[in-house]
Amino acid sequence: MFIHKNYNLQNKNSFGLNVSTKYFCEVDTLSELKEALSQVKGERILFLGSGSNILFTKNFDGFVLQFNKKGINKKDEEKDSVLLEVFAGELWDDFVAYCVENNYYGIENLSLIPGTVGAAPIQNIGAYGQELKDTFFALNGIFLSDFSEKTFFNSDCIFGYRTSMFKTELKNKFVITSVVFKLKKTDDLKINYGAIKQELKSIGKNNPLLADVRNIVIKIRQEKLPDPKILGNCGSFFKNPEVEKKHFENISQGFPSVKSFPVSESTIKIPAGWLIEQCGWKGKRIGNVGVHEHQALVLVNYGGAEGKDILQLANAIKEDVYQKFEIQLEEEVNIV
Q1: What is d(CA 197, CA 194) in angstroms, rounded to the nearest whole number?
Q2: 236 is annotated as an active-site residue
Q3: Among 162, 164, 214, 221, which one carries the catalytic annotation?
Q4: Rounded to an integer, what distance in angstroms lies between the CA atom of residue 118 and that of residue 91?
Q5: Concatenated DSSP letters for 41-73?
Q6: Burial of 99 per CB tally in 10 Å (0-12, 13-18, 19+)
Q7: Burial status of residue 326 (CB atoms within 10 A of its CB: 0-12, 13-18, 19 or more)
Q8: Which of 90, 108, 131, 332 is catalytic?
Q9: CA 251, CA 4: separation in Å to the nearest integer?
Q10: Is CATH 3.30.465.10 the classification given to domain 72-184?
């Protein structure tokens, strides 16, 4: 364990922003984590996963910490399910690949989502009809105030759309060290989501296997989302907003082609990408930043951009969407 001073974070954030932090440390064990925290008491602390869901708008005046412990342990197994504990430093997609290879069902639609397992519950990641909370059993971690350890079960976490208590009341107060998932061992594929269903039809797969679904999701994501190693981005920048049914009906009168997904009898979800595209932002570039040409939800750094440039672009998009649709977009990324 070594604590770096004035550490450059350009290779630690998927936007590729040239920012630095006062202190930086990578740890691999719980004891190292506690030791690192004890050495920089009083400093502002930021826990960083793979840096795929964060926007640095300036240098970080504090202590950035990465908990890199990896591993997947089978805690329990029954006829129809298996309980797996996954350490926080494990890459999420590596975990998905492991489950698919072992015929464990429940997270295959979440293939190729960037980030670490430890960061996944914070955001309650989701895609193509699946969310982390659907297979989440529990998580373990420590409080920063006194290093006490605690286990949180599913019902404790207040999971919502791209949120949890670890993104709200426990933000910067608790660090996740491992996550436990309960996965099914019997066929439970969710393949009726539009893009997956359409791709299965096009390749003539009526009875897809678990690996087929993973490969299709990977194909869909690679076709519409840029690789951050080539073009700096953090995936979907905004959440898909939910509006009252009456508001949606008013929008659909002016825009009959509006896309939507019912949330409840009174609430409709509208794709943020569709809203942004209607405002003319898709594919638009301003200096070193822009909106991706294939997916309007993705803001990109063409090289040399600063975080404040991306934030300025995001705010301009939000303003246009509000003026046109009276919908306030909310960022999915963490802005620092």
Answers
A1: 5
A2: yes
A3: 162
A4: 9
A5: TTS-EEE-SSSTTEE-SS-EEEEEEEE----EE
A6: buried
A7: exposed
A8: 332
A9: 52
A10: yes
Determine the Cα angle at 324 with ends 243 and 312, to 5°. 95
- Which of 286, 326, 282 is CA-nearest to residue 308? 286
Active-site hit among 50, 111, 178, 236: 236
What are the start-end ranges of the H helices in 57-193?
A: 92-101, 120-123
Q: What is the pLDDT along the chain (336 residues), one digit of tens a residue?
A: 799 999 999 999 999 999 999 999 999 999 999 999 888 878 899 999 889 999 999 999 999 999 999 999 999 999 999 999 999 999 999 999 999 999 999 999 999 999 999 999 999 999 888 999 999 999 999 998 889 999 999 999 999 988 999 999 999 899 999 999 999 998 888 887 778 888 888 877 778 888 999 999 999 899 888 989 899 999 899 999 999 999 999 999 999 989 888 888 899 999 999 999 999 999 999 999 999 999 999 999 999 999 999 999 999 999 999 999 999 999 999 999
Residues for the chain: how many in total? Answer: 336
- In words, the CATH class of domain 4-67 is alpha beta
Task: For tokens 């202190």, name the residue.
Answer: 23
What is d(CA 64, CA 54) in angstroms, rounded to the nearest whole number? 13
State the amino acid at position 13 in one-letter form: N
What are the sequence ranges of the domains in the chain?
A: 4-67, 72-184, 232-335
Please tell me if the domain spanning 4-67 has the same topology as the one spanning 72-184: no
Contacting residues for 51 by C-beta, under 8 A, at least 6 apart: 9, 12, 13, 14
CATH no., domain 232-335: 3.90.78.10
